[in-house]
Amino acid sequence: MPFPPSQRIAITGAGIVSPLGLGWEANERSLAADRSAFRPVDFFDTSGLIAKTAGVVDLPTESPFRTLPARKQSHVDRSTRMLLLAIREALAQAGRNGMEGIDALVIGTSAGAMPLGEAYFENAQHAPGRIPSQLSRAEHYQPQRQINSIADEFGWRGPVIIVSNACASGANAIGWAADMIRSGRCKRVLAGGFDALARLVFAGFDSLRALAPSGIPRPFDAQRDGLALGEGAAVMLLEAEDARQSAALGDVAGYSTATDLHHLTQPDPEGKAAIRTMTSACAQAGVSPAHIGYINSHGTGTPFNDVAEASAIAAWAGDAVSTIPVSSTKSAMGHLLGGAGAVEAVICLMALRGQWLPASLNVRTMDPAVRFDLVQKFRQARFEHALTNSFGFGGTNATLVLQRRSA
Amino acid sequence: MNLDGIHIRGVGAVSSAGWSADDLLRTVREGNPLPTVNCARPGDERTWPCPVRLVPPPPPDKTARHPRLRRSSAITRYSVAAALGALVDAGHDPAALPPGLGILFVMMNGCVNYTGRFFNEVLQNPAQASPLIFPETVFNAPASHIASFLGIDGVVSTQVGSSNAIVEALDTAAFWIRSGIVEECLIIAAEECDWLSAEALTYYHPKFIAAEGAGALLLSAKSTGPQVREVVGPLCYTSWDERAALLPDLAAQTRAKLTGAAILIDDRCGIHRIDRAEQAAWSGAQWQAVRSPKLILGESMGASSALQLVLGTLEARDTHQPVVISMPGANTAAYACVITP
User: Fold this and answer.
1) How far is A144 from chain B (nearest CA, A)?
2) Confidence at A262, pLDDT banded by 50, 70, 90
3) Closest approach of chain B CAs to the CA of A294, in angstroms?
4) What is the mean pLDDT of residues B14-28?
5) Which residues, other chains included, contact A272 with Cβ-Cβ below 8 Å and sequence gap of 6+?
């Protein structure tokens, strides 16, 4: 059932950190220029791996923390710094100086502060004796401890919910937050996702032969040969319409999640769970496929994923399929794993606000399974609703539908 | 947090006490700390003691068979057994489950054994790291396996957090049930022990004893039986000092909701420095009985509050008395609740 107007979930702020840039404007400029952001990974050893490149975030050299003591900052990992930057931007966009009045923080991640866990392992493995610094690593690899540093930075105390549904974590976090507001449990929730590149995860995808050997992902290309990993964070400030304190940038109009039981890592070839989530999220938003003016696909660039998603979109959209513009922004920045769903949701919001469509880059020959309008160059468009798909290991499928609000 | 009208229709547990909820109840009531073993460590001998309380080998009737479970790690096997226990306890036939069942999985450390094994392979030679192991390291792998095993293709989600993150999961499940997203929701919190997490606990205190296990609760609005009522919290903190300052309020708010005798199930682990704030907060009240499962079973981290809730449900059923569950947590927030018969 569509939300009644009184239960609209307004997006009043958004922040984004991606390999394409820090913040809304930098990302918009990069997407408008059809720019991609892949380069060699130099902060862990990639020798012995097939892939060597990823979408890497250039964090600012100055600390993003303003009040957290330096001693505590030293425990904060790279991914959490990205998350903090995204939160700051979202709050600023909503005209807020801090997190006062925020009822909850719902964040998706698949790796958390994995590099701290890796360091703990390596130290433990090489030393049979006790190493005092291990306590700090054991404590701070936990994502909830990392997020505590953000709570401390803002002097905020509230519930932190961490969703970890692999690559659908960020989308699920935004969906959960919308549900928390819709149910009346909260009025105002910060929600999003984050993940930084980590050696274990990089090697894991490499071991699966899921990474493009060339380092260039080509979602929906007939000869695509894998994904590229990336890193980043994005956050939305969601507010109940009847308690909204800032101008609305858009709405979270629909959300649905379902489970694909086909395989732990491979999607059902027909994308049956994706069909269900797209159908259900649109029903909640009160729209049909013909109303969807843009789909930010999961679009990893792996042979299995893209054909399954293309089949699902075709089955779900029916006769409308050829008119629906679709792209994968992973082609430009890589797969941000736990951050992907949130980053791609914020890109949908940016696209709705700016009335433009980001491109699927690097396509040479379109896969025959593609029956939709694959956007291959940045272009202007007029549309009211955008849909974003996120699929993850374990068969987690999530779909968000965002609705435009007039500027 | 309002869980009115949501009943705990079934419970299941795997713990160092054994492979059933009855094993958990009996062992905790007996009150004798289970024996420990020194945690095995690959490579060099450890130069300090690292005692653990592990789940015993499964009895033959607790070994579930399914293609997805062939390679799955201990955390999944514990979770499957606990989930089956909860479903059977609720009167469901796991082979013919009604539609509309959701799964919410909660953990702190997750699939640590495969994670350590895979990362070790990466360090040795990444070109030969096993593609079969990596997917098993992902936080939501156990939930996915259980969904596949039970044939649940609807809402299945995994939450990571402190030892009491299950309380937020109860709230989410109640919303899912009330809004018709699911008919019933299986909440499972689980953890498996490995040498890395066991050693990590000893950095907090040399006598901290790691454990493992899983607790499962089947929540439903269409049944009778115990309910989680009067949830107090979250009282949020980011430091141990803040936590200590909040616990008296947590206890006072909870006690104010009681009208008569009750049983207390606390979170104490036997280490004074860790326990003293909680112990002080709940002191001064007369309890029908006090149960301290961690003193008996060890510290099962992400599973520990689930085991408390399973135990509380069984106590409420058996004694027809309200049961207070103290869940001060370790990282982010303190909760308490009352389970009514």
Assistant:
1) 6
2) confident
3) 25
4) 98
5) A260, A312
pLDDT single digits (tens) B249-306:
999 999 999 988 899 999 999 999 999 999 999 998 899 999 999 999 999 999 999 9
SS (HEC) of chain A: CCCCHHHCEEEEEEEEEECCEECHHHHHHHHHCCCCCEEECCCCCCCCCCCCEEECCCCCCCCCCCCCCHHHHCCCCHHHHHHHHHHHHHHHHCCCCCCCCCCEEEEECCCCCHHHHHHHHHHHHHCCCCCCCHHHHHHHCCHHHHHHHHHHHHCCCCCEEEECCHHHHHHHHHHHHHHHHHCCCCCEEEEEEEECCCHHHHHHHHHCCCECCCCCCCCCECCCCCECEECEEEEEEEEEHHHCCCCCCEEEEEEEEEECCCCCCCCCCCCHHHHHHHHHHHHHHCCCHHHEEEEECCCCCCHHHHHHHHHHHHHHHHHHHHHCEEECCHHHHCECHHHHHHHHHHHHHHHHHHCEECCCCCCCCECCCCCCEECCCCEECCCCEEEEEEEEHHHEEEEEEEEECCC
Contact A202, A54 (CB under 8 A): yes
**DSSP letter (8 states) at residue B292:** -
Smallest CA–CA distance from B238 into chain A, residue = A148
Active site residue A335: yes
Let me know: does B50 contact B128? Beta carbons within 8 Å. Answer: no
**Per-residue pLDDT tens over the stretch A281-300:** 999 999 999 999 999 999 99
pTM: 0.97
Q: Is the pLDDT of residue A1 over 70?
A: no
Encoded tokens for B215:
């607790």
Integer Rg of chain B from CA: 19
* Strand extents, DSSP E, chain B: 7-14, 37-38, 51-53, 101-107, 156-160, 184-191, 210-211, 213-220, 227-236, 263-265, 289-291, 323-327, 333-340
Annotated catalytic residue: which of A282, A335, A348, A385?
Answer: A335
Q: Which member of A49, A161, A203 has the closest CB to residue B168?
A: A161
Enumerate residues 6+ apart whose C-beta is below 8 A from A166.
A110, A337, A338, A392, A393, A394, A396, B138, B139, B140
The whole-angstrom separation of Cα A244 and Cα A69 is 33
Most A CBs within 10 Å: which of B1, B139, B327, B331, as the mutation test of the A interface? Answer: B139
Interface test with A, best of B48, B107, B122 (most A CBs within 10 A): B122
Q: How confident is the model at residue B101 (pLDDT cuts 50, 70, 90)?
A: very high
Measured CA to CA in angstroms, residue B76 lies from A265, A307, B84, B197 at distances of: 16, 30, 12, 17
pLDDT in tens, B175-222: 999 999 999 999 999 999 999 999 999 999 999 999 999 999 999 998
Tokens for B302?
């992400």
Choosing from A75, A140, A298, A385, the catalytic residue is A298
Contacts of B204 in chain A (CB under 8 A): 135
Angle among Cα B275, B305, B282 to the nearest 5 degrees reads 40
The verdict on whether A298 is a catalytic residue reads yes
Could you give the CA distance from residue B306 to residue B311 in angstroms, rounded to a whole number? 8
ipTM rounded to 2 decimals: 0.96
Identify the pLDDT of residue A407: 61
What's the DSSP call for residue B73?
A: -
Q: What is the pLDDT of residue A4?
A: 65
B125 contacts B174 by C-beta, under 8 angstroms:
no
Catalytic annotation on A348? no
Burial label, A70 (beta-carbon count in 10 A; 0-12, 13-18, 19+): exposed
Whose CA is closest to B109, among B68, B152, B74? B74
Distance, CA of B243 to CA of B237 (rounded, Å): 6
Retrieve residue A345's tokens.
């949701």
